[in-house]
Write a structure and sequence with these properties.
Elements lengths: L6 E2 L6 E3 H7 L6 H9 L9 E5 L11 E6 H11 L2 H17 L2 H52 L6 H7 L4 H10 L3 E4 L2 E4 L9 E9 L5 E9 L1 H13 L9
Antiparallel strand pairs: 1-2, 2-4, 3-4, 5-6, 7-8
Helix pairs in contact: 3-4, 6-7
């Protein structure tokens, strides 16, 4: 089957240029008058044809309006013409439709569509894979924080300052001094107490310890311990100062 007219196979179904068909059928009526009359035979724009701008001719000038029409529409237009050219083009389109709808062509298009789907899935998987990597990085970055929080929440007992200081890689003496410099606590006698701003929040609790001296005489002494709430307060407070536990550094 010779190429009687250029066919566009880049769409879901083959199309041809309405201007090429107008020229091939040797229609004497101006294209701009002829095509609207053809469209009145029940053809729908967006289904049977769609407009486009034709390329500028060698003679120059502005591009003119053209239409991509389906082969089925072109076939029916050819039948309307009732000319030898119309018959010739109609038979051409009938053969083209037969070839287009042959089992081999249908299978070939199905394979092509499957390849496109596979390529799309590959790109999607590549994109999702990249997202997983990024999410894993975020998880790894957040994991120390989550673990430290978990560690705090799992511990329901009162915590000595020495234990919390170790979380920050410090001695209790250095840790207490740092909190003092930051206006969190001050020393009253032998015990650290919170400044008024932080008192009454349930951050600290005092416990009394009994001990015997070298002579066996019993004595008692108070020690301050951080509560779970107080430990979380310290974490958030120090984080604002860019001071993090060792496991988050």
């Amino acid at each position: 089957m010779g190429d009687l007219i250029k066919v566009n196979y880049g769409t879901e179904q083959p199309t041809v240029s309405a201007r090429d068909l107008h020229e091939g059928l040797e229609i004497s009526t101006r294209f701009n008058d002829w095509f609207p009359r053809m469209a009145e035979y029940g053809f729908l724009e967006g289904k049977d044809f769609y407009s486009k701008m034709s390329k500028t001719s060698d003679k120059g000038g502005r591009p003119s309006i053209d239409y991509e029409i389906t082969v089925d529409m072109a076939k029916q237009i050819c039948m309307i013409q009732r000319t030898d050219k119309g018959k010739q083009y109609r038979e051409y389109f009938l053969e083209l439709e037969k070839a287009w709808n042959s089992p081999e062509q249908v299978f070939a298009r199905a394979l092509h569509m499957a390849d496109k789907v596979v390529d799309s899935l590959k790109e999607r998987c590549k994109f999702l894979g990249g997202q997983v990597v990024e999410q894993q990085k975020v998880i790894e970055e957040l994991q120390p924080k989550a673990s430290y929080y978990d560690m705090i929440l799992q511990c329901k007992d009162l915590i000595a300052t020495t234990t919390i200081a170790k979380d920050y890689g410090m001695s209790a003496k250095k840790f207490n001094a740092m909190l003092h410099d930051m206006g969190v606590q001050f020393k009253q006698g032998d015990i650290w107490v919170l400044y008024a701003k932080y008192q009454g929040q349930g951050y600290l609790k005092a416990k009394t310890h009994n001990y015997a001296d070298t002579t066996g005489t019993q004595h008692s002494k108070e020690h301050a311990y951080w509560t779970q709430k107080g430990r979380l307060f310290l974490y958030d407070f120090l984080k604002q100062k860019s001071i993090f536990p060792v496991m988050e550094q």
